[in-house]
Amino acid sequence: MSARLRAAVLITSALSSTALLTSSAAQAPADPGWDRAAAARYLDARMDQWWAKAKTLRTGSGQAKCLSCHTAIPYAMARPLLRFGMGVAEPTAHETRVIDTVRLRVAHTDDSAPFYEHTEAKKVESRGVEAVLNAFVLTQHDSQGRSSQPSDVTRKAMARLWAVQRADGAWDWLDFGLEPYETTDAVYQGATLAAMAAGTSPGRNASTDAAGTAGTAKLRTFLHDGLAAQSRFNKTWALLAAAYLPNMLTPAERQVVIDDLITAQHADGGWSLAELGAWHWSKSGEGAAAPGTTDAALLAKSDGYATGLVVYALKVSGQPVTSPAVSKGRAWLRTQQQPERAADVAWAPWQAHSLNFDREHGGEKGEPWRRMFMSDLATAFAVLALH
Predict the structure, then answer these.
(1) What is the pLDDT of residues 130-183, one digit of tens each?
(2) HEC states along the chain?
(3) 0.70 cut: is pTM over it?
(4) May I ask the CATH class of domain 17-386?
């Protein structure tokens, strides 16, 4: 997975972010069977790296760093759970900076550089991605603040979301021919993030005008009608979206997705990202190989991102932690947390691997900065699944 901004990954809870955060603080056992503090140290260290190396964007008269799904946004999802689980109420400096960055970008929507501007197509794609991500981050943040009402900047972000929505109910998305987030199929997953923004109380209350009402209806139709053609990966995100957006899927439709995901669970209790989709790398043509070499044997194994994502989606969809699939998945995650290795740039609490390039066996594509992007995702989603 590249360093480019991608959409993905910011979920908090089936019912509300606040409920999940506060219940974690109140009910988390002293020894959950995994090391919260080590996960927190890894995520904090990766954010130190992110602010130092991430792409800088002209924003108003100043600058802001871009926010990625593989590092910055998952950090904003998982880090609050870790600190609440450890009895810490005050947000970290990195959490605060993520929110401040999004607020700044929203405040300067009309006088800032897009994520990519080297072609007109990339400007359009960037516009759609940023509209979704900004709305998602801000509505989740408002929800965590125990407010059903959107802040002024959240209202502006939601208005922007509906203003740039496509006629089919989705948003334009970055396509660099890379799975799973920068390809034509990522349009659907991006729409699930929009649904999770629109389905929060702040998102709903910021969308009561004609544009918001019509936009929500188009979004619901797009996600529902397109579900059958999606990969397991996108269907997993649809489960998360359906927990937020009423009447997106019927109980029976949700159960079909749940049952299918359970059939893909490995005997060891985990899931493999490579098996959650028929990946086709849109820039290379249908059925084409990945843009680089990959280690097929490694990708076939259970990994932290796929397992954390699926277990989290099953929990959000109402599957109890005692159900066989969730229980086995959580047990796999506990046993797979890697012992901490000080000063080792290749260490991560949980690991996952790129579908596009072999980053595990050295070479230009294996340098530590990018090599760890998938493990950033794996660690954040393992945290979400285990809380």
Answers:
(1) 999 999 999 989 988 777 899 999 999 999 999 999 999 999 999 988 898 888
(2) CCCCCCCCCCCCCCCCHHHHHHHHHHHCCCCCCCCHHHHHHHHHHHHHHHHHHCCEEEECCEEEECCCCCCHHHHHHHHHHHHHHCCCCCCCHHHHHHHHHHHHHHHCHHHECCCCCCCHHHHHHHHHHHHHHHHHHHHHHHHHCCCCCCCHHHHHHHHHHHHCCCCCCCCCCCCCCECCCECCCHHHHHHHHHHHHHCCHHHHHCCCCHHHHHHHHHHHHHHHHHHHHCCHHHHHHHHHHHHHCCCCCCHHHHHHHHHHHHHCCCCCCCCCHHHHCCCCCHHHCCCCCCCCCCCHHHHCCCCHHHHHHHHHHHHHCCCCCCCHHHHHHHHHHHHHCCCCCCCCCCCCCCCCCCCCCCCCCCCHHHCHHHHCHHHHHHHHHHHHHHC
(3) yes
(4) mainly alpha
